[in-house]
Amino acid sequence: MLPVPPYVAALQPYVPGKPIEEVEREYGVSNVAKLASNENALGPSPRAVAAAREACAKVHLYPDGSAFALRGALARKLGVTPEELAVGNGSNELLELVVRTFVAEGEETLTAEGSFVVYRLASQAHGRRCVEAPMRERRYDLRALAERLSRRTRVVFLANPDNPNGTYFSEAELRAFLEAVPRDVLVVLDEAYVEFVDAKDFPDALALRRRFPQLAVSRTFSKIYGLAGLRLGYLVASPEVVAFLDRVRAPFNTSLPAQAAGVAALEDEEHLARSRALVASERPFLSAGLRALGATVWPSQTNFVLADFPGRPGGALFEALLREGVVVRPMGGYGMPTGQRITLGLRAENEKLLGALKKLLRA
């Protein structure tokens, strides 16, 4: 057996949501409602699909390694400069690049226990310790995080809104935390779900960067833009941070179709509005339906809800739902043995889920 570093041998691979084709093949079901991976139920922007299709005619050529057009489009939309933007093969690549670039041997990352597992996995994959502060009622406890800052802390990962909990912290909470963070510690604020937020006190992270230059903001095209299969994300950070990431990232790390689709998706305001409206309608509908079945449902600012079904082991309920043609995400790995994370689907998909749960929970 080839020797590997102990920290690699100890890694548990990330487990994605079960694909529709696999469920159909294994369980002999059809018309599967996949509510497991927080994808956009409306699908991708039609403009993005057309742009990607056109770009495919040129895939014999390497993509623009600097993603000039995409960074320019993002800069115009966000009110930043292209030099403040790094793009990646999904925001996951950028999170991993941050660890690889800025956390040296003997240094640490810091995040919240029960938040997005990739922060810990990215740290462990590079042999770096990830310190985790406890949450409070499935929300980030930024005071507890501040108490765990040390001379070894190099990067702090925050998810707002959080995955898998759907909860958020306010601008006042974030500002107080940033005041406590040394200026030589990079704070990465993961805003993968920011476009679904309607909370009035949610932070304006891009504006806060002017006061706190060590703040970097990570976002993705996988959620509201519906481009998960193309793998495209971006990071807004100081030009210095972006320049160092550029030294480390692989050349041509985003594909030609992905770049073209990203530019087009940013321009498709109609698709963005329809996607927001769907979530605004289905989030209260699904939450109320789950509560009526006896589940505990956490308030969400995302395109998914976290539900707990007391007395119903998560693995068994997940398996039973698969047999009904519904895919959700069991939360045992996040310390919720009876929990499920459920993506907001179309109304028919949400009704199918509620019908299946009603049948299973009353059996």
TrEMBL record:
CDD domains: AAT_like. The keyword Zinc-finger does not apply. It catalyses: L-histidinol phosphate + 2-oxoglutarate = 3-(imidazol-4-yl)-2-oxopropyl phosphate + L-glutamate. The modification N6-(pyridoxal phosphate)lysine is found at residue 223. One of its GO terms (biological process) is L-histidine biosynthetic process. GO terms for molecular function: histidinol-phosphate transaminase activity; pyridoxal phosphate binding. Keywords: Amino-acid biosynthesis, Aminotransferase, Histidine biosynthesis, Pyridoxal phosphate, Transferase. Pathway: Amino-acid biosynthesis; L-histidine biosynthesis; L-histidine from 5-phospho-alpha-D-ribose 1-diphosphate: step 7/9. Residues 31-357 form the Aminotransferase class I/classII large domain. Its cofactor is pyridoxal 5'-phosphate. It is an enzyme of class 2 (transferase). The keyword Protein biosynthesis does not apply. InterPro entries: Aminotransferase_I/II_large, HisP_aminotrans, HistidinolP_aminotransfase, PyrdxlP-dep_Trfase, PyrdxlP-dep_Trfase_major, PyrdxlP-dep_Trfase_small. Belongs to the class-II pyridoxal-phosphate-dependent aminotransferase family. Histidinol-phosphate aminotransferase subfamily. Homodimer. HAMAP family: HisC_aminotrans_2. This is Histidinol-phosphate aminotransferase. The lineage of its organism: Bacteria, Pseudomonadati, Myxococcota, Myxococcia, Myxococcales.
